[in-house]
Amino acid sequence: MRTIRELKDNIYYIGSNDRRLALFENMFPLENGVSYNSYFIDDEKTAVLDTVDRFVSDAFFENVKALLNGRSLDYLIVHHMEPDHGANIGRLIEMFPEMKVVCSLKANQMIEQFFGEELGDRAIIIKEGDTLELGVHSLKFLAAPMVHWPEVMFSYEEKTGILFSADAFGSFGALDGTIFNDETIVDEKWYAEARRYYSNIVGKYGTQTQAILKKASALDINMIAPLHGLIWRTNICDFVSKYNLWSKYQPEVKGVLVAYASMYGNTESAANALALSLADKGVHDIRVRDVSVTDTSELISLAFKYSHIVIASPTYNLGLHPKMEHFVVDMKALNLQNRTVAIIENGTWSPAVVKTVTEILSTMKNITIMNEKVLIKSSLREQQQIETLANAIVADINK
Ligand code: FEO
Questions:
Q1: 82 lines ligand 1 (CB under 6 A)
Q2: Is the per-residue pLDDT at 117 higher than 90?
Q3: What pLDDT, in 10s, does the model give residues 96-105?
Q4: What does the pLDDT read at residue 167?
Q5: Whose CA is nearest to atom 3 of ligand 1?
């Protein structure tokens, strides 16, 4: 059964969804599945733009066969080599001996690494600014290194104005037949999954994302076709403006993420008390999350969204609670910047939360640690500490 939709002028979506996969990259929970987008251009020359993950290969090959309708495949365009898109490159190379593989030099090396295939003169090595003529369509290539691997290229189809953007502008979530953004509801729930995808997968490479956004801004883009999630053909600026904020590590909103770890409920009580005090003082965009039951990818997404982050943790093995340590270390790994952080430390003996968090955060860019700290010995006894911190956060948000 073919699963094909036309984007425009004989350019087709030939991707698939996986709603069974529990963890993307065997790491990130998928509540609503994931889509692997692939595209086909039917012109004087035929071209497949990226393949799909191995778990959804059958539909992909049926789609390619249906669109070829007995013709041969002339080109495979490889924008990105990560196996969620490149898994079927080896099979296509075998199936179509005349097919040329159009890819960056680094992707060519990776094809050999993944598939043991030396492409030789079957490879057309492309670089920034190169063009591939297919007939009425032509693809102009833009280098997008580290968005999200070093070999990544974008391509811009000059007749239709479609930007094929690899992982950029991707999102978690399977597509429900409605592959275009104007066919479904794009609300905060949708953006939450797009942000969770961006911040955790590409988030470390904000500088590189900024560079490609700048290059792309010179193009007349009518549609953005990423390798995951919705294809954007209206209100493109809305999504681009989110990407601009995320890749500059600027918060989307002035608000507070209160992330707490708690073994017996005492640190949790302090976190809740702070949230209530903040709300009482007029801050209403607050998210309180228990790091032991919230996936780190969700915490990271919220850290990219909010301007202020509260870290509330008991001392554990003379450091942080391990779940909190994972979150804080991941923020650093993903290069989060430009945030104000408050600390609630708990320690029955030898408290070490302030020291440990400060050591990690001080190696990050533009992270301000608030002077007002809540220091708890076992359980919160001085409500005034909470009020003082809440007042300081409110003042900082309103300044
Ligand atoms: Fe969707 Fe970097 O692969």
A1: yes
A2: no
A3: 999 999 999 9
A4: 97
A5: 82
Q: State if residue 85 touches ligand 1 by the CB under 6 angstroms criterion.
A: yes
Instruction: Determine the distance separating the centroid of ligand 1 and the alpha carbon of 84, expressed in angstroms.
Output: 6
Q: Are strands 319-320 and 306-316 parallel, antiparallel or unpaired?
A: antiparallel
pLDDT at position 395, please?
98
For 208-236, give one letter per residue: b (16+ CB within 10 A) or e: bbebbbeebeeeebbbbbbbbbbbbbeeb
Residue 303 corresponds to which amino acid?
A
In angstroms and rounded to an integer, the radius of gyration of the C-alpha atoms of the chain is 24
CA separation for the pair 273, 262 (Å, rounded)? 14
Q: What percent of the chain stands above pLDDT 70?
A: 100
Q: Kindly give the number of the ligand 1 atom that is closest to the alpha carbon of 201.
A: 2
CA 277 / ligand 1 centre spacing (Å): 41
Judge if pTM exceeds 0.85.
yes
Check pocket membership of 227 for ligand 1, CB cut-off 6 A: yes
Whole-angstrom distance, CA of residue 320 vs CA of residue 345? 9
- CA–CA separation, 56 and 52 (whole Å): 7
Q: Check if the beta carbon of residue 56 is closer than 8 Å to that of residue 17.
A: yes
The whole-angstrom separation of Cα 336 and Cα 249 is 6
pLDDT in the model for residue 1: 79
- Is the beta carbon of 167 within 6 A of some atom in ligand 1? yes
**Ligand 1 within 6 A of 84 CB?**
yes
Cα gap 163→140, rounded to integer Å = 9
Mean pLDDT of 74-87: 98
User: Measured between alpha carbons, how far is residue 194 from residues 37, 169, 320 in Å?
Assistant: 15, 8, 30
| 83 Cα: distance to centroid of ligand 1 (angstroms) | 8
Tell me whether strands 339-346 and 367-369 are parallel, antiparallel or unpaired.
Answer: parallel
- Of 281, 135, 154, the closest CA to residue 215 belongs to 154
